[in-house]
Design brief:
The chain has 466 residues and is mainly α. The chain is built from 19 helices and no strands.
């Protein structure tokens, strides 16, 4: 085990936080963070490609390129935001202030991303690229980073972290449900045939709701492990990744997983519109995501019976089974919906686990290097992974569809319909299998967690007595 005696963040956790149990209200306030985040970000990941091609009038190839290029900015913004959070020290805490400071900028940036001004050619691409990077990259990363970084600061109790993360994921599911179920109907209601106007008013409404939720989350939480933690320079944040193998595993797995998650969300509107003949069925597909709450609620019980790694693998297996079943039932809408719900149960389980497990990699990093860098580790492990995976989850399908001859708002060829079917149904199955194989490497590190927590507690006690 390597110890950096000169690391600026070696003073760890206050004693009274070690086994604290969070109140229902505090866990509910934590759930509001992801509810607000998903309310806006899921709208972006689910509808921005469709908005660009079928509303703003950008080619599918051009839209896919915008989404891919934006990921390079994310590669910079995620670690920068992580370092910023690690350097933040206010009377409100380290992560919590950002829910107050960035709530309105997040809403405004997302509103601008779904605004379609009267531009042409290159100007249209530049506007779309700039507003997308601002909303889905810079500002969203600033919100997503403290959402995950605050968890190890709320409590060091492992089971309470899982419980709090369960609340968070339930909140996220509700946020996804709202946008997925009501986005297109609200666009139709507000726009009255003009989708440009409809998207603007819909995003104004969603943005206002997100601001209220983030303000409530700021008011309802308390950071308990920050008071004794000192600022750390960026180079020491990087040192927290040295030898942090469980963190590497989660980062790689989560990036790849979000390729599938983004594909399922983003291509559902194309599948409903062109393969099933009714784009409003997208609201049915995505609205059913709320049933994932059932799987999320079961996660703490499944973890107790198995462990965190196996729980994630089980979720991936169930998700793959649902996708395969969807591909086997043809256009029987009832059976498609049943298969889709099975897939939701699996995906909701799989997507929830890394958020809670990242808190354990913060502990591992401190144990291994003596540096505790929750902002940096969770920023790269959550926001960066989501954005990079989502970008490829939009870019890869757009290239497959473009190669198959897809043209927006036209009757599609059999080849184009097959491409949409493949990307929506079978492409996620391939991704799930890859992620499950990688996660098998995590088992041995999860077995080390009790000893790591005991070693850290002893170290913190020794530091407090010196």
């Amino acid at each position: 085990m390597i110890m950096d005696k000169n690391a600026a963040s070696t003073a760890g956790t206050s004693k009274d936080s070690a086994n604290v149990k969070l109140s229902v209200w505090e866990k509910t306030a934590y759930s509001f963070t992801d509810m607000a985040g998903n309310l806006l970000y899921v709208t972006i990941s689910s509808y921005i490609l469709y908005f660009y091609t079928d509303v703003f009038g950008i080619s599918v190839g051009g839209a896919g390129l915008i989404l891919l290029v934006a990921r390079f900015f994310d590669a910079v913004s995620a670690p920068v935001w992580g370092s910023i959070v690690d350097h933040t020290h206010t009377k409100w805490g380290q992560s919590r202030p950002y829910f107050l400071w960035l709530a309105i900028p997040f809403a405004v940036a997302t509103f601008l991303a779904f605004t379609a001004p009267n531009l042409h050619g290159t100007a249209k691409l530049w506007y779309a690229g700039f507003t997308y990077i601002l909303a889905a990259g810079v500002v969203y990363t600033g919100i997503q980073t403290p959402i995950t970084a605050i968890l190890p600061s709320l409590t060091t109790n492992g089971q309470e972290r899982i419980n709090a993360n369960t609340f968070r994921m339930c909140g996220g599911s509700i946020g996804s449900f709202i946008t997925s179920t009501f986005a297109l109907p609200l666009v139709a209601f507000f726009g009255k045939g003009d989708d440009k106007v409809g998207f603007m008013w819909t995003m104004f409404f969603f943005g206002l709701l997100a601001v209220v939720l983030l303000f409530l989350s700021f008011k309802g939480m308390k950071e308990r492990t920050i008071a004794v933690q000192k600022p750390i320079p960026f180079k020491d944040s990087l040192k927290a990744t040295v030898g942090n193998n469980p963190w590497y595993i989660l980062v790689v797995s989560f990036v790849i997983y979000w390729v599938a998650q983004s594909t399922r969300n983003g291509i559902s509107v194309y599948y409903a519109k062109y393969n099933l003949g009714n784009e409003q069925l997208t609201s049915v597909f995505n609205g059913l995501q709320v049933l994932g709450i059932i799987a999320t609620i079961c996660i703490p019980f499944v973890v107790k019976v198995t462990n965190k790694t196996m729980t994630m693998i089980i979720g991936l297996a169930i998700g793959a089974a649902g996708q395969i079943m969807m591909g086997m039932v043809g256009n029987n809408f009832t059976l498609v919906i049943i298969a889709w719900i099975i897939g939701i149960f699996g995906a909701s389980t799989a997507v929830a686990m890394p958020f809670g497990m990242l808190a354990d990699t913060v502990d591992y990093g401190e144990w291994k290097t003596g540096i505790r860098a929750p902002g940096f580790l969770t920023a790269v492990g959550s926001a960066f992974c989501i954005q990079l995976g989502s970008g490829f989850g939009s870019f890869i399908p757009s290239k497959i569809m473009a190669a198959a001859g897809f043209v927006a708002n036209k009757t599609q060829t059999a080849h184009a319909l097959s491409a949409i079917h493949f990307t929506f149904i079978y492409f996620p199955v391939i991704v799930y299998a890859i992620v499950a194989a990688i996660m098998c490497l995590y088992f041995k590190y999860e077995k080390m967690e009790p000893q790591i927590k005991a070693d850290l507690a002893a170290r913190h006690d020794a530091d407090a007595n010196n």
